Task: structure prediction
Amino acid sequence: MTRLARALLAVYLVAFVWLAYVSAVCLHHNDPGQAAAFYATATLVAVAGGRERQHAAALQAAAVRDPRPYPNDLDAVMRAELARTCRCERWWTTFGTDHDPTCTQQTSATNTRHDEQG
Result:
């Protein structure tokens, strides 16, 4: 579980405890409508915390199933991603959908699309 997930779970726990306390105070002051609203909100916060925990467990299970080493260095990730990209101008300006006619990475599907457009 990441530090962000742990922090988010801590925030959910504090919010749940506070909402449950406010609900009990509302019941003590004989205001069941507000108490019900606060209890419902506390329930939603508890569900959100549970989903966050399930999500963290699923990510951890996926990491165990896929033992590929992931680089921690952001520069290494960026270099790897840029190494996979095409260098032609049209590829960058069309969000990776088209290549220049002279590009060596152009596929037959791209050639067909250019022939149809005319």
Observations:
- The chain has five helices and no strands.
- The radius of gyration is 26 Å.
